[in-house]
Write a structure and sequence with these properties.
2 domains, elongated, Tetracycline Repressor, domain 2
């Protein structure tokens, strides 16, 4: 996938700063508090990626303006836009993986583990549609995001794949590693489709999310949905 536009870095010949893009005055961080600015830059980039209509056109100037600093200030923490965006992606993947692990922490059996992880995934995706789009929307140019950044998302998928292999029974039991991986990918495809369609078409008369999650897991485990519903952790209010 090629970027929709070229990204002109601050200081590059031909770069112009419009009055709207000029940074607002900002009080300098006290010595030793450089990490405060780094955190602010990361938060600003994450916010913009999740809210811009065309996140693939994000620029360092936009991030700097959001924080209220000169674009050159970013280079003390990130060498370029790619490094900043990849840092945001890894943080979001880690957040999602942590939520899924925490949800399954007290699961008494593999089916409960699977139900908890999948419920956490769907609920996070529906509750954080902008951040979900950042991770799984496929809008970032390939030359801006390396494979290693998205590779950080392999951990949640591997955990779900292992849970699915342990929870499947009867004729659906998966014997080879290749079968297990393919089954995990198919389940993730279903979960991703559920989150994406729910976020994009929320005005449809959707059944309760927990019912949809249970029905989807029933298809992939050959276990009754009625057995899965009680295993879903209570949704946070």
């Amino acid at each position: 996938m090629k970027p929709c536009c070229s990204i002109v870095q601050p200081g590059q010949k031909g770069a112009k700063v419009s009055p709207q893009e000029q940074s607002a005055p900002r009080r300098r961080n006290p010595r030793g508090q450089g990490q405060v600015l780094k955190a602010q830059l990361v938060d600003a980039a994450a916010k913009l990626l999740s809210t811009l209509e065309e996140p693939e056109k994000l620029t360092l100037r936009q991030v700097a303006r959001e924080v209220g600093v000169a674009p050159a200030s970013i280079y003390s923490h990130f060498p370029d836009l790619s490094a900043l965006v990849q840092h945001v992606l890894r943080l979001r993947y880690a957040e999602l993986a942590s939520l899924m692990d925490e949800a399954a922490q007290s699961a008494p059996n593999p089916l409960a583990d699977l139900a908890a992880r999948c419920a956490a995934y769907v609920r996070w995706g529906v509750g954080q549609p902008g951040h979900y789009r950042t991770l799984f929307g496929g809008r970032m140019p390939d030359d801006l995001i390396t494979g290693s950044a998205h590779g950080a998302g392999a951990e949640p998928l591997e955990a779900v794949t292992a849970s699915l292999a342990a929870a499947a029974e009867g004729g659906r039991r998966l014997s080879s590693a290749e079968q297990q991986w393919q089954a995990g990918l198919l389940l993730w495809t279903g979960l991703h489709g559920l989150v994406s369609l729910y976020n994009d078409h929320g005005d449809l008369p959707w059944p309760p999310l927990d019912d949809l999650i249970a029905d989807l897991l029933s298809l992939h485990t050959a276990r009754p949905a009625a057995e899965i519903v009680p295993l879903l952790p209570p949704a946070e209010e």
